[in-house]
Fold this sequence. Notes:
The protein is 39% helix and 17% strand. It is of the alpha/beta class.
Amino acid sequence: MLKILQKLLIGALTFFPTIALAGVPNGTWLSQPQIRFYANRNALDQVMRDIQSQGFRLVFLDFRGVSDQVQQQISQEARNHNLIPITWVQSPQLRALTIGQIIEEARHTDGLQVDDHFFANYSARDFEYLAHQYKKFIFAVFNHFKKPRCPAMGAIR
Length: 157
């Protein structure tokens, strides 16, 4: 259990992952349409430069429906600018994703993020399995009004 707790980085970010709280890594995110827009215009280098110049360290990426090639390209571009690419796993419950499929979605990045929807729709055992199977960082984001859904093992009070 301690290894799970050490691996799990809970970020209690209120509303948006761009809001950095004391002791919480700061980052911003790119939505699926933004990723496609920048990739189609060969502007990934510039957008990552802009993100890095704003002092962000993490870039959360919504890869739903984004080609494997673009996922690899944007993840590498983030790393080229000393950013840490994190897959933001959107709506896993609506897509009926298994834990294995969630892990697969994050194959090109250096971590994955789940949100309060995960904890409302998957069991503590599912999360424990995810934490054991996934060998990279796991971030969790909770809206303040959904805080009761947080797992007790890492919730910020």
